[in-house]
Design brief:
single chain; alpha+beta; Immunoglobulin-like; OB fold (Dihydrolipoamide Acetyltransferase, E2P); five-stranded mixed barrel; four-stranded antiparallel β-sheet; 14 strands; about 15% helix; elongated
């Protein structure tokens, strides 16, 4: 009888161990199902269009290079409602919109279409002048009906030749020079061709904001006014 009881005890321990092993196997199977899907190359599944930005600061401009690569594995048709294929929106460090490319360029109303082959790249280069030192954010995107391929990034301007100024417009000193009262001091500014046209719509006595730089003779030259 004692031998029978001992045999039964050993048999029960073996059965419990087998059942525990089966339970561990089921848990491992569930965990493997939660892994991010991979493609045949073992990489995470990518978007059909891959946008990238390269931003470079030059003396007078910030150069933005925007590339969109077709990674879908097939040719893709893109259609545009006007002549512009891409646009950007530039923000200052406080989130205020400074520039929108499409508002400053002429475009046609004709529908434009293109076929982007697999691994083919759309390349666009934007020049942004007049940025003073500081922090910015830019959104760049396609204007295609089928795909935006938007990319957003922040960048810093550190070596700008431009400065932002403001003060009370006293008046014209001559056709290409104005006087601005800044903190009680009268300061003379030369005017660029663009600024000469813009100043005609500004009234004496108002507070003006402007972007200026210094020329080779040390004279301050207003490039344009921000008053609209």
């Amino acid at each position: 009888m004692l031998n029978n009881r001992f045999f039964y005890l050993i048999f029960s321990v073996v059965i419990i161990g087998m059942l525990s092993g089966c339970g561990s196997s089921d848990d491992d199977h569930l965990n493997s199902d939660s892994v991010t899907p991979k493609n045949s190359a073992g990489n995470s599944i990518a978007a059909k269009f891959h946008p990238t930005l390269d931003i470079k600061e030059e003396e007078k401009d910030v150069i933005v290079k925007y590339n969109v690569k077709n990674l879908s594995g097939a040719s893709k048709k893109l259609s545009f409602s006007n002549g512009l294929e891409a646009d950007f929106v530039l923000y200052d460090q406080n989130g205020h919109i400074l520039k929108r490319h499409s508002q400053n360029v002429l475009s046609s109303q004709a529908l434009k279409e293109m076929t982007l082959k697999n691994n083919q790249v759309i390349e666009k280069v934007f020049k942004i002048p007049g940025l003073v030192n500081g922090d910015y954010k830019i959104e760049v995107f396609l204007l295609a009906n089928e795909e935006q391929a938007k990319v957003v990034t922040e960048f810093k301007v550190e070596h700008s030749i431009y400065t932002k100024g403001h003060g009370k417009l006293t008046g014209l000193m001559d056709p290409h020079t104005i006087e601005v009262n800044q903190d009680g001091e009268a300061v003379a500014y030369q005017l660029s061709t663009q600024a000469r046209e813009e100043v005609t719509s500004l009234k004496d006595g108002i507070i003006v904001s402007f972007i200026y730089s210094e020329n080779g003779n040390g004279q301050k030259v207003i490039q344009w006014f921000e008053n609209k």
